[in-house]
Structure formats: C-alpha cells, structure tokens
Write a sequence for this structure.
C-alpha cells in the first residue's frame, strides 16, 4: 500500500511538530518494509533528506503552511500520487483532499488562546474552517494525549472511537551530562554564574512567562533564593513584553535570556539546572518536563491540561494563575532535599513510558488497520 506523510514541518532544529515528524519517519522505516511511503517536503529539507530505504520516496512541494499554495499546490501533488492513505502530521492540510487520510492533533491551543488581538478575523476563520474540515474528513485522528482527545470531543464534537491516543517520545540523547568540564563551559557560554532555574520554550501568552517572572520576583524577595532564571527559546512577538516585564520587576540582572540554544547545550543546561519549570496555562503534551526528568533534574509544573497526565507523580505541581503558590512551590522544590531525590528517581522511571519506537509501532498499527478496511 502507498502511504503519504506530510513532512513540510520536518525541522532541522527538531522542535515540536518537526521533531514529531522526524522521529516518526525515522522509527517507522526501521519496522516497515512492506508499505511504500511518499514524503512531502519544502525546501531546504527536501534536498537535505536522504531516503533511508527502497520503499521511501520524497516529493518537493514548497507549499508554505497556512498559505494558498497549501490548498492548491500541495493538493495537486497529493492527488498526483494516488495514495491509499495520507498522514497529515498537523491539521493544516488541503480541505479539498478527499482520499483516505489521518491527522495528528498536537493540541487545540488556538481554540483556547487565539493569540494577539491584531490577528485578522480572516486568519482565525480560516484556521477554524481547516481544523474542522480536516478532522471531520479524517478516517482516524491521532491525539498525543488523553487530554487532547477530550478537547477534540468537547470542542469539535468528534466521536471517541475515531481518536487514537499515541504518546510522543523522548530521545535517548536526553540524559544527564556527567562531564564537569562540559557543564562549566556551557554555563560560561551563557553567562551563568549562579545556581539557576530553567525554562525552555516559546514566549507565547499561554506559556505564562509573565506569571513565572512575577513568581520568581517573590522567590527572590520572600525566600531570598540565590538563583537566576534562565529562559531559552526562539524569540517571538511576545518576547519584547517578557523582556520589558523582567526590567520593570527589577530582575534585569537575575534573568538570562539565552535565546534558541543548540540541543547539546540544552541537554547540558538541563543537567546543571537546580530546577526546571513549566508554568503553562495549556499544553497538548509537554516535552520539556520529560526532557528535564531524563537529565536527572527535578521539575515543577502547572497543574493544568495534559501536564498531570504526562508527568504523573514525577513532578511537583502549582496553580499557574497563583504566583504566590508558584513561588512557594519553586522554593519547596529547591529547598527540600528529600523531595528532590524522590522527584529525580520518579522522573527517571517516568520517562521510560515515552519512547519514539512505541509511537512508530502504534502509528503503523493505525495505518494497517485502516488499510485493511479499505
């Protein structure tokens, strides 16, 4: 059978959906030599990608996400291949594609947090049309957590039996760096001269970085924590607001904005941080707490959305809307040595549940089930 996979978000820095697509295809082709696969790429990933097996073909489409080309040019490329099944790894797909398809839904964040007020009504309307159309037409929907499944049922009125929950994974590269020299060099590279708390991710509103800054201010003033706060991640439209708040709170010298760091540096930062935190209002899955756990670092996260499901008893939780509670929780996670030891042990055990090989195996089962019914 001939299966297509949307690899337009296949990313060289392997974040988010790019990581998902990379790991899915890498592990899928290790276990399936029977089906034939067609991978649809944009530049420059198309030219960089080398098909790993005889049953894998790549196609250049150059159709940017959320564009007219996506609806016309990408549709033309899909129809030309006459696929038995198409896997859209994100919901942004041609709405007039009528052959059998499945779609992975990572979250419904935009349904809860539409973004900045100046985002056009037309864009919001287009988002809703594409999301509803693609999920309605899909033969199966893959949700990355039970929480995302519940959101799909509640918001889009999708039947439970149409949704398969398949957890994402954490790569084996995420493990504690034991070299003191590497850790010291990494800290020097980013100007870290004190113990620190680590946040990694984007600056968008739902990530609640402003709430974290307010809690960090309380942590410094009330609990006299010697720590700095290190924030890593690509700058986005919300970055100036966060930077301004850090300055207004008098935290300019205590917050380090490290930018988007290479993966090897990120792993080293996880390894030498005293604590990782994720103060998000909403997460469809939540990679970063698991990455911290894999590197032997305790994590304090919001008691919201998918995070209790994903983290289990391997994290300490707080209400992201209550900055005083957040500050107290961060203090406890830093000061209580018995708690820290329990979290580290539980975290190393917890991450064993999340393997990319399992995702590929379960996704292949979905493919084969649908192809058998075809």
């Amino acid at each position: 059978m001939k299966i297509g996979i949307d690899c337009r978000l296949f990313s060289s820095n392997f974040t988010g959906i790019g990581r998902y697509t990379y790991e899915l295809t890498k592990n899928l082709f290790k276990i399936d030599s029977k089906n034939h696969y067609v991978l649809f790429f944009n530049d420059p990933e198309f030219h960089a990608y080398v098909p790993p097996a005889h049953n894998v073909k790549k196609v250049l489409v150059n159709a940017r996400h959320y564009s007219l080309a996506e609806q016309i040019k990408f549709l033309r490329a899909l129809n030309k291949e006459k696929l038995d099944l198409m896997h859209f790894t994100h919901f942004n797909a041609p709405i007039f594609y009528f052959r059998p398809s499945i779609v992975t839904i990572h979250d419904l964040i935009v349904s809860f947090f539409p973004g900045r007020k100046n985002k056009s009504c037309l864009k919001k309307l287009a988002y809703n049309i594409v999301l509803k159309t693609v999920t309605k037409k899909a033969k199966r929907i893959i949700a990355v957590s039970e929480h995302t499944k519940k959101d799909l049922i509640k918001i889009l009125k999708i039947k439970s039996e149409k949704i398969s929950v398949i957890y994402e994974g954490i790569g084996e590269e995420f493990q504690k760096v034991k070299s003191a020299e590497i850790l010291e060099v990494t800290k020097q590279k980013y100007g870290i001269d004190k113990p620190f708390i680590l946040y990694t991710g984007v600056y968008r509103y739902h990530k609640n970085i402003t709430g974290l800054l307010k809690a960090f201010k309380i942590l410094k003033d009330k609990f006299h924590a010697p720590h700095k706060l290190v924030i890593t991640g690509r700058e986005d439209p919300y970055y100036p607001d966060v930077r301004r708040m850090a300055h207004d709170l008098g935290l300019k010298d205590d917050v380090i904005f490290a930018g988007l760091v290479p993966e090897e540096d990120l792993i080293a930062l996880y390894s030498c941080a005293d604590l990782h935190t994720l103060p998000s209002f909403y997460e469809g899955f939540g990679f970063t707490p698991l990455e911290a756990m894999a590197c032997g670092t305790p994590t304090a996260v919001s008691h919201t959305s998918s995070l209790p499901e994903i983290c289990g008893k391997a994290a300490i939780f707080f209400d992201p809307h209550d900055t005083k509670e957040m500050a107290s929780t961060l203090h406890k996670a830093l000061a209580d040595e018995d708690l820290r030891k329990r979290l580290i042990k539980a975290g190393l055990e917890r991450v064993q549940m999340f393997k990319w090989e399992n995702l590929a195996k379960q996704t292949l089962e979905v493919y084969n089930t649908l192809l058998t019914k075809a």
